[in-house]
């Protein structure tokens, strides 16, 4: 702890007397400054014990009061007046002004040189710095041993909380709480979700200090909270939060920084291990998609902990042309793995370069934690889309993959965040076709009819639509149009003449109906 005015006053060799501000002696003293200026504030930083003989202070109450106000406003923690030179005793107006502002005022007797006070404070500051360095090294060694142990990250969080005399919490890359110490702090740590989420959207490393009450915590529980993102390449791999009763000291800041460095190193090391596991998972997924399920299961049992058991779905994520989805796909993969890890759900993930850019494939349990996490990520990222297969057995994953790819194509073409295969199978054929190609086909096929309708009577396009929608039933279609069936027959003959095609041909009817529907999509 830094020296305080109280510790300076208690030094009997200085013979100091407190004349005012006795209730504020616990203020820390950052330095001792001697000045005979009427206004020394331009040369002060705050936290000083100012010593003066008062040569230029004057003796009027107004000047003395103004002097005290300047010092108090500048953050001076105490004023020492040396008697015996310009003042035989401390002026009462100075005492009154100091008492009014709550500024501790010390009487320095003539036998006590100012340099003696400076030496006492300097020695205390040096001792504080030595203690800080010693404590920091001890804490770093303790935290390093903890990080190298069996429960590395958990042990670091627990030791950090004990060192700070407060609580500490570790969150994974998605912002989910993974470790908290002591156990009673779980409620407090859980209420920092919004702050962690804000940091998750900023480049790492980033930090935030919440002075006073942590958000959402009962008014009876006041904390000084610091939240720090953990990551070495601008991407947060996790988050560390600590809560203490008071603002953390410089020594505690060193300890916190050491913990941040160790946890970042641990998470980066874990990331390298995860990357190796991802490569293994990608190879297993490709084996499963190729129909080599038995071989994949045999390999996975020994090295990967097994394959997903039960009904699965294949999810394929990607982005449209011109959209850089690299970071979004990486986050999708991370969040999927974190979701699976929290509940012990197996999944397989692989990244590949598709015809229209990178794709991420995920094989996971139907409607499981991983499936739900993937749907949540695509909702957060503009331009990212997800295609989801129908539920399938693991042996049918190849078919499910094809379904997911088709669903993704529909999602990208329609600008949708996600599309299930069931929607594709139950919906129109048009979303599966290239928009530009369908439009060009429809315009070319129907142009003769539209040219006719612009220059003559007959409403051939509307009549054709009504007739096709009624499957060639003349009376029903004529009733829809409000014309006689003979009129409708005449119009359909004109359609055949202009198109050069027979409406008796089923293929011609299908093409015309597709062309008409494309204008409605």
From TrEMBL:
Purine catabolism PurC-like domain: residues covered: 8-124
Domain PucR C-terminal helix-turn-helix: 460-517
Name used for this protein in its record: PucR family transcriptional regulator
UniProt-listed PANTHER family: CARBOHYDRATE DIACID REGULATOR, DNA-BINDING TRANSCRIPTIONAL ACTIVATOR ADER
InterPro entries the record matches: CdaR-like_regulators (IPR051448), PucR_C-HTH_dom (IPR025736), PucR_C-HTH_sf (IPR042070), PucR_dom (IPR012914)
Taxonomy of the source species: Bacteria, Bacillati, Actinomycetota, Actinomycetes, Kitasatosporales
Signal peptide: none
Pfam families: HTH_30, PucR
